[in-house]
Amino acid sequence: MAARTTPKPKPAPAAAPEDAEEAVYDFDSWTEDAETAAIEAIAPEVKYIIVERSFVGKFFDGTIVKATLALSLDDVDALQAEYDNEIDQFRSLIEVVGGAENVKALSRQDIADVSQMAMKYFNVVQRIQGATRPE
Question: Which of 99, 112, 128, 134 has its Cα between 20 and 30 A from that of 27?
Answer without folding.
Answer: 112
